[in-house]
C-alpha cells in the first residue's frame, strides 16, 4: 500500500486480483486482454495459486464455477466474443449463488469485430447476458488505478451477496500504462473464513450441494424471488458514481470508462471557455445510479451521454431521469474513441438547444 | 446374525427416480462402494451431469455440484486445482461426455488432470426422450433417426476409450459393462482402481460403463441386457485401453 507503480491496465487488474486473494485463474487468449492470463500464469504459482489455460472460454468459466464452489477467490477474464461464450457459466453461477469474479476488456463488435476499445457490451453486462432472471454487479473503471483496485471490491460485493461480479473495462484501459497505487493491504486467503456452503471435505458435517435447479413446482420461483431481494439490497447500498462540477451545470455529460476520460478533457476545455458543464460518471453500471441522476434531472437544461457504442447506457439515463430533461447522445461505436474536441462541439450544440428538443445524434 | 451386505455409507438412503432396468442405480452403488472401501467419502466432491443422472447430487453422500451439460471435466478441474486434497469425480452420460462435452473431456485427459470420470454409455439419449447419441449404433433406431442410424446421414458412433487412449495425459481407461452380474463385479473393480489412481496422484482416469436404457431403447430390461451383449459389445469391446501404473499427474494445485 502506498507504493507508486507504473503498470499496464490489464497487468494492474491481474495484480489487483492476486493482492485481493485470488488463487485460481482459468482463461483463454483473446485480444485485448491477453496480458491478464499471461500475468496470472507466473504470478499465481508464485503466490501459491493455480493457473489453467483452458481449451475454450466455455471450459474456463466452468473451471471457475468449480473453483468458486470450493469457496476460494478466483477469476477469469476475456473480451467481448469470449464473454458471449462464458455466458452459459455466468448464468449457472448466478443460479447457484456462487460469487464469481470476471473481467470483460471490451473490443469492437458484434461478431469478430475488431480489437480496439469499445463499449458495445453494456446491455450484455447490465441486463444479464445469459439465460434466466439474474443480475451481475458491474464496475466500470476509467483508469489503471481503478483497474487495480476494483477486483477487491468485486470480491467483497460478490461474496456478501453471492452474485457474479465483473469489471467492465475496454481495450484502451487494458492496454494503456499509468501510475497507480494499490490502496488496500494484501489479502492472505488463509485469513478468509470458508463460507458455510463451500464444497470440500465433509468430515463432521452433512454433505453439501451446489446447483442451480429445482424441478418441484413453485420452488424455483421462490429461489429466484429470494435472489431478487438481494438484488434490491445491492441497488440500495452498492451504487458508486463520480460527480464533477455538476452544481451549476447547464449541461451534464454522462459517460463511463475510457469515454469518461475523453469527457474529462472536454469538460476542462468547456470550463476554460466559461461554459457551465458538469460530468457524471457511473462507476457501478449495475446497480445504476438512478436516484442521483433523477435528482440532477430537475435542475439541468440537458444531459449529453457519450458512449463508445450505438447508445446503450443512454436508455438507462432516460429511464432514470424520467424524461424530465432532454437526453442527447454522442455515439462512437465499434472501436472509435471520441476526442475532447468533438465532445466540446456537442456540448455547444446542447447548450444552444437549451431545454428544448434533442440535438441530432451521430 | 452376520450382516453380509448393506447400503454403502457413500450412498444416501433416498428413493432414486430411475426407470426400471436403468443402469444408473447399479453404477451409483458401485461408485459409492468404491468410495467406502477406499475411505475417501469425506474428501470426495462429485460433479453431477445434466440428463437422467441430474439428481446424482441428491444420491451420493459426499459434497456434490451440478453444472452445465458436458462441462463436468472443466468443473472437476476447477475443484481439483482449488482443493488438491479432495478426490473429484465427474459422472456423465454419453451425450454429455461424447457430444456437447467432448472438448472438455479430451482436454482434461490431455492435461493429465488428476480427476476420475465415470462415463455411462447406453447408446441413446435418456432424459430428453430417446434421441440419437454419438454412441448410437449403426442401424439403431432413435427419435432423431427413426429409420435407424445411417452413417451417410448421421455419421459413425464414437469410441471414447480408444480416442482418449491416444493422449499422453490419460493414465487409466477401461471399458466395462453391467449387463450381467459378473460384469457388474468387473465394473466395480475398474471403478475402484480409477479412484485409487487418483488417490495416488497418477492423473486422469476414466471408466466407461456400457449400460441399459429399456425405456428409450423401447425394449424390456432383460432384452436391454441382451442388446448390450449382442449389439453393443461388438462395437464397444470391453477391456483396459490405457494403464500407466507408474505415472504421476502432470499438474498440481496450490
Key traits:
heterodimer; A: 362 residues; alpha/beta; five-stranded mixed beta sheet; 15 strands; 18% strand; globular; B: 254 residues; seven-stranded mixed beta sheet; 35% helix; 17% strand
Point out poorly predicted stretches of chain A.
Answer: none
Q: What is the arithmetic mean of pLDDT of chain B?
A: 96
Biggest sheet, spatial arrangement of strands of chain A: 3-2-4-5-7-6-13
**What is the radius of gyration of chain A?**
21 Å
Mean pLDDT of chain A: 96
Strand content of chain B: 15-25%
Which runs of chain B of at least 5 residues are low in confidence (pLDDT < 50)?
none
SSE order of chain A, one letter for each helix or strand = EHEHEHEHEHEHEHEEHEEHEEHEHEH
Termini Cα gap of chain A: 44 Å
CA distance, first residue to last residue of chain B: 48 Å
SSE-based structural type of chain A: alpha/beta
Order of helices and strands of chain B: HEEHEHHEHHEHEHHE
Instruction: Please identify the structural class of chain B as seen in this structure.
Output: alpha/beta
Radius of gyration from the alpha-carbon trace of chain B, in angstroms: 17 Å
**E-strand count of chain B:** 7
What strand line-up does the widest sheet of chain B have? 2-1-3-4-6-5-7
Amino acid at each position: 500500500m502506498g507504493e507508486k507503480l507504473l503498470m499496464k491496465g490489464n497487468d494492474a487488474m491481474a495484480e489487483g486480483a492476486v493482492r485481493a486473494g485470488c488463487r485460481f485463474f482459468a482463461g483463454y487468449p483473446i485480444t485485448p486482454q491477453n496480458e491478464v492470463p499471461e500475468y496470472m500464469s507466473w504470478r499465481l504459482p508464485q503466490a501459491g495459486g493455480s493457473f489453467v489455460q483452458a481449451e475454450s472460454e466455455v471450459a474456463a468459466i466452468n473451471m471457475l464455477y468449480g473453483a468458486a464452489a470450493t469457496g476460494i477467490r478466483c477469476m477469469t477474464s476475456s473480451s467481448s466474443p469470449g464473454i458471449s461464450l462464458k455466458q452459459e457459466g455466468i448464468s449457472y453461477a448466478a443460479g447457484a449463488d456462487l460469487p464469481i469474479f470476471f473481467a470483460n476488456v471490451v473490443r469492437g463488435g458484434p461478431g469478430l469485430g475488431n480489437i480496439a476499445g469499445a463499449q458495445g457490451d453494456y446491455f450484455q453486462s447490465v441486463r444479464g447476458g445469459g439465460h434466466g432472471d439474474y443480475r451481475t454487479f458491474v464496475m466500470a473503471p476509467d483508469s489503471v488505478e481503478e483497474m487495480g483496485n476494483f477486483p477487491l471490491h468485486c470480491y467483497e460485493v460478490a461474496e456478501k451477496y453471492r452474485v457474479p461480479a465483473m469489471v467492465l473495462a475496454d481495450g484502451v484501459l487494458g492496454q494503456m500504462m499509468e501510475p497507480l497505487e494499490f490502496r488496500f493491504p494484501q489479502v492472505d486467503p488463509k485469513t478468509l473464513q470458508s463460507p458455510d456452503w463451500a464444497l470440500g471435505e465433509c468430515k463432521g458435517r452433512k454433505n453439501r450441494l451446489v446447483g442451480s435447479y429445482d424441478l418441484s413446482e413453485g420452488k424455483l420461483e421462490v429461489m429466484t424471488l429470494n435472489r431478487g431481494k438481494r438484488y434490491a439490497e445491492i441497488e440500495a447500498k452498492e451504487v458508486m458514481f463520480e460527480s464533477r462540477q455538476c452544481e451549476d451545470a447547464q449541461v451534464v455529460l454522462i459517460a463511463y470508462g475510457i469515454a469518461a476520460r475523453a469527457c474529462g478533457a472536454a469538460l476542462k476545455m468547456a470550463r476554460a471557455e466559461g461554459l457551465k458543464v458538469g460530468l457524471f460518471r457511473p462507476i457501478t453500471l449495475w446497480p445504476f445510479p438512478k436516484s442521483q441522476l433523477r435528482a440532477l434531472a430537475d435542475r439541468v437544461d440537458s444531459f449529453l451521454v457519450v458512449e463508445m457504442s450505438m447508445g446503450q447506457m443512454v436508455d438507462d439515463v432516460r429511464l432514470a431521469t424520467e424524461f424530465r430533461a432532454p437526453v442527447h447522445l454522442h455515439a462512437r461505436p465499434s472501436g472509435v474513441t471520441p476526442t475532447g474536441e468533438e465532445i466540446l462541439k456537442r456540448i455547444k450544440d446542447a447548450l444552444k438547444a437549451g431545454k428544448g428538443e434533442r440535438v441530432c445524434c451521430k | 446374525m452376520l450382516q453380509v451386505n448393506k447400503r454403502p455409507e457413500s450412498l444416501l438412503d433416498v428413493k432414486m427416480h430411475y426407470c426400471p432396468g436403468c443402469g444408473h442405480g447399479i453404477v451409483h452403488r458401485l461408485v459409492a462402494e468404491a468410495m467406502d472401501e477406499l475411505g475417501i467419502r469425506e474428501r470426495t466432491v462429485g460433479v453431477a451431469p445434466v440428463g437422467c443422472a441430474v439428481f446424482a447430487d441428491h444420491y451420493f453422500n459426499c459434497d456434490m455440484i451440478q453444472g452445465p451439460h458436458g462441462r463436468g471435466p472443466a468443473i472437476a478441474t476447477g475443484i481439483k486445482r482449488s482443493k488438491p486434497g479432495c478426490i473429484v469425480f465427474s459422472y456423465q452420460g454419453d451425450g454429455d461426455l461424447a457430444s456437447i462435452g467432448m472438448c472438455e473431456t479430451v482436454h482434461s485427459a490431455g492435461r493429465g488432470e488428476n480427476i476420475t470420470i465415470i462415463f455411462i454409455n447406453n447408446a441413446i439419449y435418456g432424459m430428453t426422450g430417446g434421441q440419437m447419441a454419438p454412441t448410437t449404433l449403426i442401424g439403431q433406431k432413435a427419435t432423431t433417426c427413426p429409420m435407424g442410424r445411417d452413417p451417410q446421414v448421421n455419421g459413425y458412433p464414437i469410441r471414447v476409450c480408444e480416442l482418449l487412449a491416444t493422449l499422453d495425459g490419460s493414465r487409466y481407461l477401461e471399458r466395462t459393462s453391467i449387463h450381467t452380474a459378473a460384469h457388474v463385479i468387473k465394473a466395480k473393480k475398474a471403478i475402484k482402481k480409477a479412484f485409487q489412481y487418483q488417490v495416488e496422484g497418477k492423473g486422469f482416469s476414466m471408466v466407461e460403463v456400457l449400460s441399459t436404457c429399456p425405456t428409450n431403447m423401447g425394449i424390456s430390461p432383460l432384452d436391454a441386457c441382451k442388446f448390450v451383449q449382442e449389439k453393443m459389445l461388438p462395437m464397444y469391446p470391453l477391456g483396459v485401453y490405457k494403464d500407466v501404473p507408474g505415472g504421476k499427474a502432470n499438474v498440481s494445485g496450490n
